[in-house]
Amino acid sequence: MSKERNITTLPLDGGALCFDFINTVHAWRGVNLHEYLGDYGSLVQWCAKVGILSTKQRKLLQQHAASHPGEAAKALEKIKQVRAVLYHCFAAVAAGRPQQLSETLLQQFNAAITKGLSHIRFAAKGTTLEQGWSHAPTDLLAPLWIVMKSAYDILAQEDSVRIKECPACGWIFLDQTKNNKRRWCNPVSCGSIEKSKKYYQKKKREMEGA
Length: 210
Description:
Oligomer: single chain
Order of helices and strands: HHHHHEEHEEH
Radius of gyration: 19 Å
């Protein structure tokens, strides 16, 4: 992970939109050194980075947030709360222990999923029906609805054994390798750091035992 931490340098190692959303903190394990969604403007930047909402939609949200700072702060807080719920739910799935999730967490997760899917609409386009979204142009929670659709798709379509949590930072990712042996969110960053820690600990034990 880059020393200069902002949306521009934020890696997209999740393999799915909802996981990239969860991974908008420096770490879920250990010390969280940076919050990438520090303000609503950062969220709009993130939307542009991952390619959700049109340029016009993002501009309208940015303008509305700027002219209604209290509303924007409240919306961002809600979005972060749901992000935490998503992390805990998918971390439990990654650990193979979803049955240990509290009833409260499951209720919050299901409520967010239901709300997100309720905004989906289909419209005729040529000879088919095309999925779209129905929400007010200034709905500051609009990005969250798209994220929740991604979370639904992952649980409905992907093998749960491919949902993993990085043992170093806690980022959630979808293992898309053929052998399903991927361990780190990023082998260059977290993988190298963890290997260095193990090497240091091994050498320390050897010196203490000498």
